[in-house]
Amino acid sequence: MISGGGPCPCGTGRTYDDCCGPLHRGAARATGPEQLMRSRYTAFALGHADHLFRTWHPRTRPRDPAALEPDPGTTWTGLEVHGAGTTGEGADAEGADAEGWVEFTARYSAASGPGSLHERSRFVVRAGHWVYLDGVHD
């Protein structure tokens, strides 16, 4: 666990309290897909399954919230964002038809050794909030 004044795991260089913390506490909402993706990475790193559940589109998220509980044998060790963007009318203003994407690599260590996950994630605006829709891994 990190203190609120410690560096945010998402790699922005800001403190957790000035970065992903307000999104995790529900005090703020993501202004775009990259910010939401960074907050979701940090939720994986810190074990905030409730944030993952809240920010996953109900049509594509696991039915059982317990499926989002962190694997105690995995430690997330770094995030690199390769690109992000939005499309659709109102994308910059969180319009109902806005869609977005983020391509990233998340690094981790596990009992089997270090690894990485490369994904291109898709996001949409639902009820005025950016939510994760799905992603393609390679």
TrEMBL record:
Residues 33-135 form the YchJ-like middle NTF2-like domain. Residues 56-97 are annotated as: Disordered. It comes from the Bacteria. Pfam families: SEC-C (PF02810), YchJ_M-like (PF17775). Belongs to the UPF0225 family. HAMAP family: UPF0225. This is UPF0225 protein M8330_06780. It comes from Nocardioides bruguierae.
